[in-house]
Amino acid sequence: MAYLNDNYLKLKAGYLFPEIGRRVRAFTEANPDAASRLIRCGIGDVTEPLPPAVIKALHLAVDEMGSRETFKGYGPEQGYDWLRHAIAKNDFRRHGLDVADDEIFVSDGSKCDCGAILDILGGKNEIAVPDPVYPVYVDTNVMAGHTGEANESGAYSGIHYLPCTLENGFVPEPPSQHVDVIYLCSPNNPTGAAATRPQLEAWVQYAHEHGSIILFDAAYEAYITEPGIPHSIYEIDGARECAIEFRSFSKNGGFTGLRCALTVVPKSLTARTALGESKALHPLWNRRMTTKFNGVSYVTQRAAEALYSTEGQEQVRDLIRHYLGNAAVLVAGAKAAGLTVFGGTNAPYIWVSTPANYTSWAAFDKILNDANVVITPGSGFGSQGEGWFRVSAFNSRTNAEEVARRLKLLQW
Length: 412
Ligand code: MLT
What we know:
It contains eleven helices and 15 strands. Helices cover 35% and strands 14% of the residues. The chain has helices at residues 16-30, 52-65, 81-92, 110-116, 135-143, 197-210, 282-292, 298-306, 310-336, 360-371, 397-409; strands spanning 39-40, 104-107, 127-131, 159-163, 181-185, 213-217, 243-248, 261-264, 270-272, 278-280, 341-343, 349-353, 373-374, 376-377, 388-392. Helix 2 (52-65) packs antiparallel against helix 8 (298-306).
């Protein structure tokens, strides 16, 4: 009999969102009348249609695929040059950041890249994650065998958890001990916190002192409204030598169903071999992509390119304004209900303290049963998330207003 990957058996009950889906299904089966009242503010999935500039580009690209003269087969595994150029120019160089076209790798999602990046990193790295945390960072390390077993609160041995609390504004601080790989997500999923420049400078300094690599997830950068908050880790001097950045078109262009993202691997970023030699990671990631990936579809890449057109940029701004408007409605509703609320200013998530000693999952059940609203329990993101829940602002305005109204009516 063949061997399976034992590391998978260390994973806790299931990925958070499937577990939420299971509970919601059980609720709607038991309460069919409530099903039509249900409003989903759990998984951060966009609700608004794709911008018109994207639809136009998709139609044109589909027509090209239907004609022998313009048909495209396999594209470059790293992404078409014109999209890599549009990204590097508009997302980075236009803001004075030194990122070359060929340091951009186009992919089908940041979630995939956050997991896949472990292919090019060694198995002996000390890993640090914020707590609460996007579960993918932890689970992919478990799958790769970088951890021991989880304890009863779900924390894995072999991972350093960096507490993010109300006291530190939910932004992790560099630890006193050595770690090799650090996951940072700003603006943060799930708390909505955004790291300031001095906070990111402290991390880059730490990474230089310790020879660490920062895996910087900037999937929500388009939601930053406060001036001075960095949109990219490369705004910090020295980050090109210590950081990889992940970005996505999911939450700005509404591409969760279309799938397109990018990872920046600077050519100046190095790590050491087992023999202690310093080597660049860029050729390794290039090798990984050309071996395990065949590129994002031509049609999708043309759609992503359209987001950088003048009208595409305006339509993206409209989408962000819409979701941040929802966040403001939700923040006001939760505050009016007497709850402690964080986030929603630089991110499409609001982070709410559970009242009356409810655990996060007890609050989830209460809100599902009494308000017929699906949220995400904070403890699903880590032990420091216990006592909190996340409300996603990805919804119609009508639904956001209704959720705010129902939160106010809840009797705890
Ligand atoms: C979330 O709800 O945390 C996100 O939608 C997950 C993701 O982007 O993969």
